[in-house]
Amino acid sequence: MSAVKRMTKYLTAVQAMREEGVEWVSSQDLADALGLTSSTVRQDLSHLEFSGTSKRGYQTRGLEDILSKVLGADTTWRVVVVGAGNLGKALALHEEFPRRGFNIRGIFDNASEKVGTDVGRFKVRDMRDLPAFAGKEKIDVAVIAVPTHAAQQVADIIIASGVKGLLNLALAHIIAPQGVHVVDSRIVASLLELTHSMKFGS
Amino acid sequence: MSAVKRMTKYLTAVQAMREEGVEWVSSQDLADALGLTSSTVRQDLSHLEFSGTSKRGYQTRGLEDILSKVLGADTTWRVVVVGAGNLGKALALHEEFPRRGFNIRGIFDNASEKVGTDVGRFKVRDMRDLPAFAGKEKIDVAVIAVPTHAAQQVADIIIASGVKGLLNLALAHIIAPQGVHVVDSRIVASLLELTHSMKFGS
DNA sequence: TAGATTGTTAATCGATTAACAATC
DNA sequence: TAGATTGTTAATCGATTAACAATC
Lengths: 202, 202
Known about the structure:
The structure is a homodimer. By secondary structure, chain A is an alpha/beta fold. A 6-stranded parallel β-sheet of chain A has the order 7-4-3-8-9-10, sandwiched between helices. The first copy, chain A, binds a DNA duplex through helix 3.
């Protein structure tokens, strides 16, 4: 697991602890909660502009703040969802997004029978309007929720629209130029990883 | 990226190639398509019970077959979705799942106002019925699509029901005993990774 | 044959862990 | 003070890449 992935876990863990009123947390506590070694935790956290305290550990408040900052969770990001299938529609309405600073601005599809239909408070827009919309609305991130075979083509349109961040939910691998960031969150691929480990030990 | 994650990428790439009628693929071709080095590709594929051919590369048909087998994509897996929010409902109806051998058997929630409502061809079932259902239906995998704070508690019920594979979509980290396999596919965490890399170079 | 491409060994690189002095 | 816990250095481990002989 990469350090950044662990940062997202530290953030959620420390947020949960803060809600329970915990004020200090040691590297060992975090390690136990997340299945890591305390050494890994200390290494990771030592790269932050934030220090722990001997004998007490890390203050949860400060740790949450710095992790939020490092992960961009203290900023609001303007997001579109591309693909108005079941998954795309669910994501457009997903409550966890606004709560974490991801502000959904619209949902797009290229199927004419879907364009204009309602998805919660949104109307599905035509893919052809994406470039203009992305510019006008200053879109930061596009979520790709289209079938495998359409993913690269859709990505190309998004990239040409000037959007610099892509979250790819399709099973396909996406090729993007330097300066455009792509992160995969491919649910079916994760299921295949899972069944692999179930078939052949961990 | 772990070798298994790459295997899922090889599988999709080689399936796409086969659909286009490509019969042979070299390690360099695969590397170019997936943004890897040919050396990594050869290392990965050399562990499979399948050999390439000098001067020609790997036969797409054979490669697809062995990758399917290794990833468990040649088997049918019996799956329940836990959590009937927007995301859970979308997953229960997601077409990519049955296409890849994941057979959704039911959807569960613990909110009484959701229990009994329709989600496509399913009726939402009560969480309390999960243990009996999982046993009777021989459920292999549960997909956790509940809010962060409920994730561990729901996981505990699933594990107690004898299900050995968990796909966790919640932002929380899940603790499971030996022998129970957990894979994360946390969309919001992936968005945080993305915004991190957008804020601080790649 | 000559050339392309595999499979594998060895080298490099990076990430994880262990160990421990510094510190409160 | 004594003890707990950090931050950091060094050691280990594993994953990626380079190189090249084997092969068709």
